[in-house]
Specification:
Transferase(Phosphotransferase), domain 1, 18% strand, 6 helices, alpha+beta, 5 strands
């Protein structure tokens, strides 16, 4: 996810975004791991798991991303959490619900919504030789992806140049048919 979110290792965060937020030393919720999924090919994580939080009235499933010790020490975890907080209000970007950074133990995790309906690649692969994807949905997904990219690059009001200059620009480094995910109960791609 860090790979897809930003160039966390090389990109300075504008306007001290990283220092303008409060990092939690403990998560807000008590999390229960459902299934460990390994690293899923991601270079900037110590492991991915599905999780729930205790007493969630909606019984939702989330993704837990653990950071490597070195990512905490080098402040990569801090940058990713700061950037996810910055873009968390966009409707087509996967939302972070909780996080923690334990500086002393050099541990950090973030908890994001789980997009359980698969990727755009899954949509393509599930089409038979005589089946088509609804063209309206394809255009809708394309517009949503572009909307999210504009938001990452320029912020909530791209038409206001002064606001764009103060936005901590995020460059998505891994746009492919495998990145956007469909969220349960929606045809939206995220």
């Amino acid at each position: 996810m860090a790979k897809a979110l930003s160039k966390a290792r090389d990109t300075p965060v504008k306007n001290n975004l990283e220092t303008s937020i409060t990092y939690l030393k403990r998560p807000k919720f008590q999390w229960l791991t459902i299934q460990r999924l390994g690293t899923l090919g991601g270079g900037l994580n110590a492991g991915i798991a599905t999780a729930r939080f205790k007493h969630d009235p909606l019984d939702r499933v989330f993704v837990e991303k653990s950071f490597k010790t070195s990512d905490v020490k080098e402040r990569i975890a801090h940058k990713e959490i700061a950037l996810l907080k910055q873009v968390g209000d966009h409707m087509h970007i996967t939302r972070m619900y909780d996080h923690f950074i334990d500086e002393r133990a050099r541990r950090a995790c973030l908890y994001m919504e789980h997009c359980d309906k698969g990727s755009l690649l899954d949509v393509i692969m599930n089409c038979g030789s005589n089946q088509c994807v609804n063209e309206h949905n394809v255009w809708d997904w394309f517009i949503q992806i572009l909307s999210a990219l504009v938001y990452c690059h320029l912020g909530p009001r791209p038409e206001v140049e002064s606001e764009c200059l103060n936005w901590a620009t995020i460059y998505h480094r891994d746009i492919s048919k495998c990145v956007p995910y469909k969220r349960h109960g929606s045809h939206r791609m995220h």
